[in-house]
Design goal:
mainly alpha; MetI-like fold
């Protein structure tokens, strides 16, 4: 293990950087899309249900088939990988967003409306803060699943830690597979820890706002 690290650590660090770039780009895009969809369709439950069903269908498509469908349009590399991972993460985020917002006590929404708040103000000042636990729970799940699925994108020359896994499989070597697995877990745990800290900070801030 140590010998392989000493001989290949520059390449492995580059693989980690590529992997992290792909995952964070996909999650960031999925998060932006989810927020836009929720804002546009907040009072249209049929639209939300339809979009959730649509993304669930996309989620059910095997990744290799998804890559094959997009290759003529976006080609090999990171672009195709990010598009596919974004669509996969979108289903998880959208479900968690909807669950969190619909779980808010309707009486609180009525009180906010009675105080003269607009629907947008009610969303940002009441529904969104109270839905934060469910939203961050969905982000954690999306992070872990996207980090794992990102290992497959090495098959379309997108880079990442999947290159270590496929190197081990092709050469029937255990060490590259172990390093690819370990580094993927390290990235996942590190990002999950940062996300947990962000959740605590946001929750604490919104509680102070609500008390005020």
């Amino acid at each position: 293990m140590s010998d392989y690290w000493n001989a290949n650590w520059p390449t492995m660090l580059e693989d980690m950087q590529q992997h992290l770039t792909i995952v964070l780009s996909a999650l960031g895009a999925a998060l932006i899309i989810a927020v836009i969809v929720i804002l546009l369709c907040l009072h249209h439950e049929r639209w939300l249900s339809g979009l959730t069903y649509f993304f669930s269908l996309l989620y059910s498509i095997p990744s290799f088939a998804f890559f094959a469908l997009l290759l003529p349009l976006s080609g090999l590399g990171m672009r195709t990988a990010i598009i596919v991972l974004t669509l996969y993460a979108e289903y998880v985020l959208l479900r968690s967003f909807i669950t969190g917002i619909q779980g808010v006590d309707p009486q609180l929404v009525e009180v906010a409306s009675g105080m003269g708040m607009t629907s947008r103000q009610t969303f940002w000042k009441v529904q969104f803060p109270l839905a934060l636990p469910a939203i961050f729970s969905g982000l954690q799940v999306a992070l872990a699943s996207t980090m794992a699925m990102a290992t497959i994108v090495a098959t379309i020359n997108a880079g990442g830690l999947g290159q270590l896994l496929f190197e081990g499989l092709q050469g029937q070597q255990v060490v590259p597979i172990l390093w690819g697995t370990i580094l993927t877990m390290v990235l996942t745990l590190g990002c999950a820890g940062i996300l947990w800290l962000i959740e605590r900070a946001c929750t604490h801030r919104w509680r102070r706002v609500l008390k005020a």
